[in-house]
Amino acid sequence: MVESFAPLFPVLVSLGAVPLIVASRNKPNLRESWTILAALSKFFLVLNLLPYASQGITVEAKIFEISPGLPLLLRADPFGVYFATVASGLWILTSFYSIGYVRGAPEKKQTRYFSCFAVCLSATMGIAFAGNLLTFILFYEILTLATYPLVIHKENKEAIGAGRQYLIYTLTAGVLLIAGTAIIYSSIGQIDFRAGGILGNSAFPSNMMVWVFLLFLGGVGVKSALMPIHSWLPSAMAAPTPVSALLHAVAVVKSGVFGMIRVVGYVFGTEVMAGFGLNDILITVSGATIILASLMAFSQDNLKRRLAYSTVGHLSYVVLGAALLTPLGMAGGVMHIAAHATMKITLFFCAGAIYVNLHRQNISDLDGIAKVMPFTMASFTIASMGLAGLPPVNGFLSKWYLAMGSLEGHMVVPVLILIVSGVLNVGYFFPIVHRAYFHRGVGLSGHGEASPFMVVPIVITALLSVLLGIFPNLFFGLFDIAGVVSASIFEGVAR
Amino acid sequence: MTAYQLPVFIPFTYLAFAVLIPLVGLWKRKLSHPMAVTGSGLAAGLSLYGFAAYVNTGPIHHTFGGWQPPIGIEFVYDGLSAFFLLVINMVAFLVLLHSKPVAAREFRGKRMPFYSVTMLLMLGFNGIVSTGDLFNLYVFLEISSLSSYGLIAIGNRHAPFAAFRYLVLGTIGGSMYLLGLGFLYISTGTLNIIDMAAMLPHFAGKPPVLTGLILMTVGIGIKAALFPMHGWLPDAYTFASSTSSALIAPTGTKVGAYILIRVLLYLFGIESMDAVFKVSSVLGMLAGAGILYGSIMAIAQSELKRMLAYSSVSQIGYIIMGLSLANPAGFVGAVLHVLNHAAMKACLFLVAANLRFREGHSNIRLFNDTYRKKYPWTMACFTVAAVSMVGLPPMAGFFSKWYLVLGTIANANWVLLAVILMSSLLNAVYFFRVLEKVYMKNPDKESPAGEEAVVMNREVKPLMLAPVVILATGIIVIGIMNMSVVSYILKMFPG
């Protein structure tokens, strides 16, 4: 373990950009350049930590004590670096995309938009690098607060209602988290994240184990969109598409499943999970969510809502991977965090491009658009293939590992769930692709692709999904890091 | 002046100014405000100096006239007193600083008596907190009560009756305290706190002592607005002038809580208190009921000051619940919440004062999103205070809730834990409702064509804005630096 302030800088850099963004509110180009600068710097600062992560070394920064015996602890362990890399890398692309979107839509209150985004990403870095539960909660709640203005951005009735629902769900989850954390802290005096868990072989009373797990399940389960506490996510589609793309496909919901893996692997530990049957609860909930969400996606005509239910299902892939309690399964779950992020963000980017370009939101209006937006629809097709688990997109790889993990644990049902879900994914994505390519379009003459600010990120993320599917270690050795994370959870050791 | 005389100088500064203001005011009415500000400023400065002196040297006992306790009266400047003195004097200074334009508008002809009575009120509060003699405490209690009745009566046309109701209830409370004190005096033969505390364990189970305890607790409970004896509070805070509310709300009930802490934890101690039946449990239950009642009633209010008044009932419940837990975490939570709530409530009531000053009302139904542009700084401070009241990090309110949660878990009191968590969510409802109204366009109101009328910034004058901003900044700073406060409070815990 290395001690350094390196994990602190990615958290601070976008916070520092906020006053600059606000100050340049009357000069849009300058204002946007602060966002791009912050995104690039953040990404490079996180990349600095990658060499340590791939060797399994943790970089730690104790900031100061915020409670007796509890420091504000930022610990860049392999899992944290993994998540941070995904989030910060995708923020760069989302920032460019946002510029195209808010100017093309056009959206009002752009300064508020960009500054809230910066705070959100800062909070996400804090979540990724949180070294103990209290630090995690701190940044988790800040993320909730910072995403609220983005959800209600359009300020119409739908958005305000979505915002209220979002707050009710996430604030309730927050208090459940606080309760769970306080109970653990009162019993064993520490709430650090340690690979392999802190509750095993500890003084924590057995009769409370299931109750505390349920508290945490509710706490991280809301942001992980587990059913039945998932309904905030489809409602949050009232937000502008870049918000849906980055926050509700990458930052917020991935923070939820990231937190879930932290709880399973770094707080409870695999032995405790198995010993108290907690993994059964998790498998049941996530399995049900996968199937039900995929089924509900069928009935959605609004493109973003269909994508939202698809997200609900795919987040539970990650939870399922964690719940399998096998090394391959855990690795599959971690891999799916990145895989789903790249694929889903592509899909949301496409939805936004279609909206800005053609002002169409419903799938029934998407006939024939592949003729006018070929790059967009090609990327859409690739990403949907990946989500269905078809090679060579990276979605196939993570699904493969999940299935292997299930067999490793001598469980057949998860494999069946994954297969059925794959079929359902094809079922709800294929019609969109089919319509776009093979139906005749109406009212499309004179339209072309959306602005390059939007199309280039779409193509990049689609390409990323394919490249990472064929060469998983191509960018920053993420595949290996996923393996390191999984291994560390099962060995119970982090150097 | 030496450190030995500090415990006297702090309260008696107010006494001096209480006499000086009428003398000078009759000659030049305009000087009343500057003199009041000077008086409270001096007292605040002395409290700060005294606090530093206490941290360096330790408790200071000042015996009046050289007559030794337990016969003579002494002022005891220990950790708890130093803390409370600092909090209430700083708040008073900021509120009085703010009051000049409000006074000119709301009670123009009565400014001189108003400031003079304010000085007497603060004398009473400071005396209560400084004294080491229980009957002396009653004297100062009456001084502060009578002053507060007067201050509350200076308001709109409903104010005199609200003050009268407070007078009746408050006098009953004071008399019960005195009666209870009588029983204790008969049993122990002394009125000095330290002396009686040494003797009480011998008499703990005896009927006169128990009677005395109950009478004192109920009597002070009335002053502290402990549920169900809070009935005087909503009307009193709502109909009083803006300055009176802003002055009494953060300080008055806190001083009541101080008396309860002194009597229940320092004088009696947990064993003597629960000798016959679990007084602490009953207190905890009442406090919990008050927390929920206050929050629910606040949601139902359409007038901002009334909402804040019910919120105060709820918040004082936190403090009393914390002290009823009688463990270090609960104690820390309670005392930290005294500081936090004083800062938050003062900020909120001053915001209400600013809004009343500019708009003529503080009716939430009439709030609209022009406030965001008209009063950007005031509303920003309101947001900070509101987020802190809900208990979201990194604001101060989160940390007092955290310690209270730890306190309830340490006693395995799951009911009170649920109450705290539930009330956070209820607080979110009524505060976010105001924020929604202020920051977002009402989606139901169609804006007339060509609206987006230019809304001028009508922010209040710096004299009124600065205290609000200072308090809001203080909330953030206290939150981040809460460790230093907490380590100080931990040392105060009796036994």
Q: Roughly what fraction of the amino acids of chain B lie in strands?
A: under 5%
Strand arrangement within the widest β-sheet of chain B reads 1-2
Number of helices of chain B: 19
The ordered string of helix (H) and strand (E) elements of chain A is EHHEEHHHHHHHHHHHHHHHH
Approximately how much helix is present in the residues of chain A? over 70%
Output the helix-strand order of chain B.
HHEEHHHHHHHHHHHHHHHHH
Describe the sheet with the most strands of chain A. Answer: 3 strands, mixed
Q: What structural class do helix, strand and pairing data of chain B support? A: mainly alpha
Biggest sheet layout of chain B: 2 strands, antiparallel
Which class of secondary structure composition applies to the elements of chain A?
mainly alpha
Mean pLDDT of chain B: 89
**Cα-based radius of gyration of chain A, to the nearest Å:** 21 Å
Summary keywords:
heterodimer, A: 495 residues, three-stranded mixed β-sheet, B: mainly alpha, 19 helices, globular
Describe the structure.
The complex is a heterodimer of chains A (495) and B (495). By secondary structure, chain A is mostly helical. Helix content of chain A is 72%, strand content 4%. Chain A has one domain. Chain B contains 19 helices and 2 strands. Chain B starts with 5 loop residues before the first helix and ends with a helix. At the A-B interface, β2, α5 and α6 of A face α16, α17 and α19 of B.
Question: Gist?
Answer:
The complex is a heterodimer of chains A (495) and B (495). Chain A is mainly α and 495 residues long.
